[in-house]
Amino acid sequence: MLSVVMLAIGLVILVFAGDYLVRGAVSLAEQLGISPLIIGLTIVAFGTSAPELFVSVQAALDEAPGIALGNVIGSNTANILLVLGAPAIIAPLAISSHGLRSSLAIMMALSFGLIWFMYTDLRITHIEGAILFAGIAGYLIYQFIKAKRISRSVKGKKAEEEQLEDFDDMPESTSDYKKIALFLIVGIIGLPLGAYLTVEGAEEIARSLDISEAIIGVTVVAIGTSLPELVTSVMAAIRKSGGVALGNVVGSNIFNIGLILGTTGLIHPLDVDPHLLYFDIPVMIIASIVLIILAVLARPLATWGGGLMLVAYTAYIASSF
């Protein structure tokens, strides 16, 4: 019971600390006059992946690679089947590949690169972590170049606003420097604390139930770290504001593999649990292919489609155990 409480508290701290860090960083960037598009492509995208990053790094340092890898793989699957499926139950969800074809291609390239690394020696080495990190660095450079080209165009401001719609909603910001400092401090302190409690609780639960850490990583931990995106998408659907943008999901999945596993692999090599390799990774790839098909078809995801995605995700979680 103590382990469950520790895990729950850790996840709650991660959610709030991540939110405060993003709000503080976005507010500071706005005060420094940084472009909203650049803020959306970097700070907001990084901030929504911050809980997964801190959990995976903490898990790697604690010699719990199953949680580190399972967290990322499970989060990517949850982002597609759960984060897109849940709001579609409430209201039809508009899905299109407009402006995101290159990002979808990068997401799949990183996914297959991860598979290759895992299959070759059942390990994510320092070099492979560096390659994944280089992938996210290249993606950001491409987005920066694209953003500058847009800002220089005749209709730059309008085009910038249109591209921003493909990414995460900008959080509420403030111009009060005291609040900005408070947000940043809470985020910087809360994220490592939440990650520590989450990993310690997850490890203890895995030991007490005599199941692999990878299973806890792809289920409980992954769902917990995906809660911010899930809440955002459901609330948007309730407000009938179009649900969650496809770019939100695609960008998060790219950051999860490139930034999180890249950084974690650079810090500490990760041994691959066979359960992840032969079950969870194929499910993630199938979910990604479904996402691409939906984006190419460019048709709204109806209630029945969202229901199928939730049923598929529920079946996946149940079969994991």
List the helices and strands and how they pair.
Blueprint: H1 2-31, H2 36-61, H3 65-81, H4 85-90, H5 101-121, E1 123-124, H6 126-152, H7 156-164, H8 177-209, H9 213-225, H10 227-238, H11 246-267, E2 270-271, H12 274-297, H13 303-320
Antiparallel strand pairs: 1-2
Helix pairs in contact: 1-2, 1-8, 2-3, 2-6, 2-7, 2-8, 2-11, 3-9, 3-11, 3-12, 3-13, 5-6, 5-11, 5-12, 6-7, 6-11, 8-9
Overview of this protein structure:
The chain is mostly helical. The protein has one domain (2-320): Up-down Bundle (A middle domain of Talin 1), CATH 1.20.1420.30. The protein is built from 13 helices and two strands. It has helices at residues 2-31, 36-61, 65-81, 85-90, 101-121, 126-152, 156-164, 177-209, 213-225, 227-238, 246-267, 274-297, 303-320; strands at residues 123-124, 270-271. It has a two-stranded antiparallel ribbon.
What overall form do the CA principal axes indicate? Answer: globular
Distance between the termini: 19 Å
CATH class: Mainly Alpha
In CATH terms, the superfamily is: NCX, central ion-binding region
Q: Which key terms come to mind for this protein?
A:
80% helix, 13 helices, 1% strand, two-stranded antiparallel sheet, globular, mainly alpha, 321 residues, A middle domain of Talin 1
Characterize this entry briefly:
The protein has helices spanning 2-31, 36-61, 65-81, 85-90, 101-121, 126-152, 156-164, 177-209, 213-225, 227-238, 246-267, 274-297, 303-320; strands at 123-124, 270-271. By secondary structure, it is mostly helical.
